[in-house]
Structure formats: C-alpha cells, structure tokens
Amino acid sequence: MKFSDFGEKFTRESGILHLMDDLGEAIASGGDWIMLGGGNPARIPEMERRFRQSMNEWLADADAFESMVGHYDAPGGHRPFVEAVATLLRGEYGWPIGPENVCLTSGSQTSFFYLFNLLAGSRKGARPGKILLPLTPEYIGYADAGIEPDMFVSARPTIELEGEDQFKYHVDFDAVRRRVDDDIAAICVSRPTNPTSNVLSRPELDGLVEVARQREIPLIVDNAYGTPFPNIAFGDIEPVWNEDVILTMSLSKLGLPGLRTGIVVGSQAVISAIAAMNAIVSLAPGSFGACLTRKLFESGEVLRLGREVIRPYYEHKCARALALIRQELGGRGYRVHRPEGTFFFWLWFEALPVTSTELYHRLKKRGVLIVPGEYFFPGLAEDWRHKHECIRLKYSQDDESLERGIVILGEELERARAE
Fold this sequence. Notes:
The chain is α/β, with parallel strands linked by helices. It contains 13 helices and 16 strands.
C-alpha cells in the first residue's frame, strides 16, 4: 500500500512509538520484565481507593453514567469540569480566567499535536514556522508531533556540576536569543521536565516569558507533573500564566493515564482553535476522566491529594531510588540530574564507551527496559556527545524490581567499560 507523505511520516520509526511498543510488548508477554522505561505513573493505593469511591458515587447518581456514555460533549470538553478547572485556578492563583480559557483534549499528546501544528509549519507570506525548545533534552513525545518535517529547533543548556554525583541543566539565554528569529512560531518547555526532572527556576521561566513577549509569540509550558496538580515537584514552585502563555496539564499523573484527559489553558483565541480541532478530529474529547474527577476539582480536594498523598509518595520513592543508585553505581562513572520532580532519573555516564542505544539493547536482553538518551534531543542539529551518554530511568515501580534493574545496569556498565 502506498501512503501519503503524512502517512509515511507517522508510520516510520520514532522514539515515542518505540517506547510505547516496548511497554505494550512487555505487558502482553507476561514475562518477568523490569520496567524502568515507560512513563506509567505509580499505582498509589490511596489514590486508587479515592478514584473507586468517585466511581461508586457517580454510578449511584441516577442517570449520570447513562448521560455520560449516551451523549457527545461540546468540542471544548465536559462543561462542568471545564468550569471547575477555571474556578480552581482562578481561586488558587488569582488568574483572570474563565471557562472560555480552558479546553479539554484526548490527552496531553493530543494537546501538543494540536498546538504545534496550529502554530508552526507552512505560513502565508513567511518562512515555515518552527517550535523552539530552549533547553534540551526534552520530552520524547514532542519530536514527531509535527505534520511537517524539521519543525523543531533546540538550544543546548549549560551544565552545572553539583557535589560528587549530581548535575543540573540551565537555560543558555545567549543561545536562545541567537536562535529566536522570524521563523520561530512558539517556544515550548516542560516544567518539571521529562526526562531530566529539571525544574526551571522562576527567573529562567520569567526570562522565557519575556523573550516570547518581545517576539510576540506564545510560550507553551508543559505542566504535566507540576503544580497545583499532580504536584510531583519537590520544591516550592508556582506555575505562570497570562494571555501570552499556553499552559497544558493532564489527569494522567494523578494516576489516570488510561482515561486520556488533557487540559489546555490559554487565550480565548487559542482555546477556540483547539475546540475547533477537536470537532474535526474527534467531534469531542471523551468525558470519562472529566466526569470521574469533577467533584475533586470543584471541592479543591485534588490539591490536597497532590500535596498530602502524591508528592510525599514520589519524594519517598525518589530518596529510596537515589540511595540504590549510589550503592550500586558508585565508582562506575555516573552522574544523576538533581531530582526536582517527575518520577524519572536522568543518568549521565561521561565517556561511556558504547552509545546509550547500545546500552539499551544490552539491558533489554537481560529483561530490563530503560529509554536511551538519543531520543530526547529533538531539533538539535549538532551531534553532541552528551546525548549518547545519557539514559532515562523510571523509579515509580516497586522497590524490588528497581533494585534488580539497577544491579543489572551496574553490571552492564562495568562490562561495557571493561570491553
């Protein structure tokens, strides 16, 4: 069968396809895989009990379930939930937003597909627009979301070494300003960042807001792990929003990835455009996630759950996993990005004698799945050695699996260096 250019692009090998195929294959096989790769959040018992309680309350409400499955919602998403999100954010931060500033999608991946192609690509009377990633490495799912080729450009960060075994990336504003010219249609950054757990400081975020304002382009902030929900950020951070900022959020990291519910907060023009794209692509986003969690947002309980349940759970997991890494990888030439959020470690093996992709294949043969670093540098034109020396490792699974996986990682690192 002959596919169109669109079909060829979206069926070829990609990092996100590789990641999801590995995840699906491991689950379907039923084997004893050690899953340190895919991005599933942890199954937190207290959160699961709360979701089950919400489900029971919903089913007990006469006609609520039948109404949800038997009707289309508006293209912007389930209106009561949209209003609850707007009210919560307005009350928490004082932002001047209403339901006209909020739209739902079928998950964050869909949100970014819409936003990138809405803003970048071919433009009348101008060069094709591009999305600037001001700090790479960045989220693996961005790389292939553009309909047109070469939609992304990125800037290398500066690297600050910390202590004996940590480091941190910072935005290189000189590099960013050199790259922001007339072909840049938007700037996009995640905070906290998947894969590295990096949290941009408030001065860094404010600096990007100002660069975007000066160029009259939007700043897209991916807030999938941030505040006020799910609050998987280990410092006191506050999100930023104004009419020039597009903020994206999700229900996935609350513990509901299967419900595919993305949230976009933006200007009325952006929200109207996203709703129009929803109507064309899917008529309307699904309502399940919005209906299940609406009361948590209306009451503000979602904030308490993030503060008292989700964040402490991941902070404990992070501390335990970092101790394991130091125990098993000490002396094997590693550094870990300062853990500031998410549920990933970004490990850097300086002067690694094999690429991170080769290390991935060696680990896979031993039943351990990680994600090689090469996939996380979309739009970086130069062949930076650093991107071949890093891996992403997930620590949200059980402690026993994590310990076994890190032991095997240490053995493979030692073997590679010995060779």
